[in-house]
């Protein structure tokens, strides 16, 4: 009898890592894990599955372990931690994406969705479409898919659809047959030294294309044009290149291009048309979630579906029934006529387009934007990008910055964002108690409260709802 490999996941409470751990268990590995925080938005399902989860990190966890799969976030917090350093010394250490690439993606045709924004939503759309079309894919996503009540799916076909993250160069662990790049903007300043460094990583990733070699690009993204300009002509001639755009004169010109036309925006969603002679596309679609950025995400998936022979009727049905993913404009409840939404947005661009989408859904209501800024390094690097970000909100509350992986504060606080945003009704509050106090006194029936962040904000949203 072959011994089951024992994989221990360090940082098992993370969004994607939790799903990987559950997939590993289903694939026949013996699985355990540990996490600094006892409670996260994703750890409950891991414990429920019977996986043993330890609180905190300790070298003793490695007893009998064959592979330590670690989250880069853990490495950034303390790369000298005994559990990490011992695993490194024993030669059993893997960044979790390496584990996925080596074991879970073995003999699979990998379809990777990457970019700065919209990866989880786009990956979910793609996976649901393949599922609905009977292609039975496996998938791993950094957010919960509502239909599955999970962020992963184990399928029996050769297709594996995966959210490919640029942070820590994690996406370089995969061997993609098809890549969708949603957009590229500077992010993760705690890892990328500069925009050039970030583009270089995307360059390396795109160059990993193998097999069918499909590359689908958002032609309206300045960062993607920068990437495109450094890709060699010989490489571009060796792949199948496709693009999509809202414009007649896009930032990036691509021969096989799909033109998006927004027909009608309503409170319930968006009707749009995608046309391309080269891709034999001339169809109208209805997307049941708001926001122009989601139309762009959907169009990348429409092109993907065409390449894999999925019928247009399946595409139309899937987009019509798609209700989004967890923590992306997720309505968590209503109390006293006040609706509270939770969203993962933490980059200024993501915050702005999320507010734009919420305004589409609620054209006349009063919107409160409650933001937990994520990391001092990101706040410092992107501070100037906050100007005008909150224009669609009536009132803005900025809370304390979530430290994340930072070791210094760079001299910024939530007040820095308030000042830079130039919003006429933005305030800084030093803790959640003060935020709740303002909202319980000043919000009223018909108001919409949108809580955004990637740290503890999902807890904030629920506490705010409970205390209205």
From TrEMBL:
InterPro entries according to UniProt: Mur-like_cat_sf, Mur_ligase_C, Mur_ligase_C_dom_sf, Mur_ligase_cen, Mur_ligase_N, MurCDEF_pg_biosynth, UDP-N-AcMur_Ala_ligase_MurC
Pathways per UniProt: Cell wall biogenesis; peptidoglycan biosynthesis
Enzymatic class: ligase
Subcellular location: Cytoplasm
Residue span(s) of domain Mur ligase N-terminal catalytic: 6-92
Chief place where the protein resides: cytoplasm
GO cellular component, one term: cytoplasm
One Gene Ontology biological process: cell wall organization
Gene Ontology terms for molecular function: ATP binding; UDP-N-acetylmuramate-L-alanine ligase activity
Domain Mur ligase central: 113-303
EC number, UniProt record: 6.3.2.8
Domain called Mur ligase C-terminal: residue spans: 327-455
Keywords (A to Z) from UniProt: ATP-binding, Cell cycle, Cell division, Cell shape, Cell wall biogenesis/degradation, Cytoplasm, Ligase, Nucleotide-binding, Peptidoglycan synthesis
Catalytic activity: UDP-N-acetyl-alpha-D-muramate + L-alanine + ATP = UDP-N-acetyl-alpha-D-muramoyl-L-alanine + ADP + phosphate + H(+)
Membrane-spanning intervals of the chain: none
A Pfam family matched in the record: Mur_ligase_M
NCBIfam families found in the cross-reference section: murC (TIGR01082)
PANTHER family recorded: UDP-N-ACETYLMURAMATE--L-ALANINE LIGASE (PTHR43445:SF3), UDP-N-ACETYLMURAMATE--L-ALANINE LIGASE-RELATED (PTHR43445)
Protein name listed in UniProt: UDP-N-acetylmuramate--L-alanine ligase
Protein source organism: Candidatus Woesebacteria bacterium RIFCSPHIGHO2_01_FULL_38_9
